[in-house]
């Protein structure tokens, strides 16, 4: 069973700190390299009059995004579903297949900045749980209201058991986690 990050809309204040932390983490930790044309967080804070909440990949067990990818660019590893950018052709099949709207295709310049003939490349971007970052998902660490949590398989089982006990006692609880 995969771990995943879940957002609590009751706690989210829409500050977008999670988006910034994500973009910085995927820019090698160097915020100086971020510009509006290079700002690619792997989650998106959605706001309306009643709610604000980050939308991000649920690391699905039977990931529809991976199933439809014609290049097998979306693969499962110990951190969930990952994108192998060298295989991605930017076809957007994964974007359409994701039931959560958690995948985006972004256009990046390839090559070095001093090269005269840089090309554009489409890439699928989704939450990778900050794979390679020892401290785990940056968004979870920086959220000022603790609206984001990393849910491990053990925690999920514990919470399901708690809900089953409450339900058996007649104190049902419909909260997600």
TrEMBL record:
Keyword Amino-acid biosynthesis annotated: no
The entry's keywords: 4Fe-4S, Iron, Iron-sulfur, Metal-binding, Repeat
MF (Gene Ontology): 4 iron, 4 sulfur cluster binding; metal ion binding
Residues covered by the 4Fe-4S ferredoxin-type domain: 2-32, 79-108
Source domain of life: Bacteria
The keyword Chloroplast is assigned to this record: no
Coiled coil: none
Alphabetized Pfam families for the sequence: Fer4_11, Fer4_4
PANTHER family, alphabetized: ELECTRON TRANSPORT PROTEIN HYDN-RELATED, OXIDOREDUCTASE
Descriptive protein name: 4Fe-4S dicluster domain-containing protein
Annotated organism of origin: Brenneria nigrifluens DSM 30175 = ATCC 13028
Higher taxonomy: Bacteria, Pseudomonadati, Pseudomonadota, Gammaproteobacteria, Enterobacterales
């Amino acid at each position: 069973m995969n771990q995943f990050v879940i957002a609590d809309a009751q706690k989210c204040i829409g500050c977008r700190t999670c988006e910034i932390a994500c973009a910085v983490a995927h820019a090698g930790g160097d915020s100086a390299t971020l510009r509006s044309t290079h700002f690619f967080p792997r989650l998106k804070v959605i706001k309306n009059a009643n709610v604000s909440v980050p939308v991000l990949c649920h690391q699905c067990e039977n990931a529809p995004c991976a199933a439809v990818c014609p290049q097998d660019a979306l693969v499962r590893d110990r951190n969930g579903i990952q994108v192998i950018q060298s295989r991605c052709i930017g076809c957007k099949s994964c974007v359409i297949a994701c039931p959560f709207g958690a995948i985006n295709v972004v256009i990046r310049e390839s090559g070095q900045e001093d090269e005269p003939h840089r090309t554009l490349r489409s890439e699928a971007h989704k939450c990778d749980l900050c794979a390679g970052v020892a401290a785990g998902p940056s968004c979870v660490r920086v959220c000022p209201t603790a609206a984001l949590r990393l849910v491990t398989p053990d925690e999920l089982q514990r919470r399901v058991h708690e809900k089953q006990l409450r339900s058996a006692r007649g104190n049902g609880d419909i909260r997600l986690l």
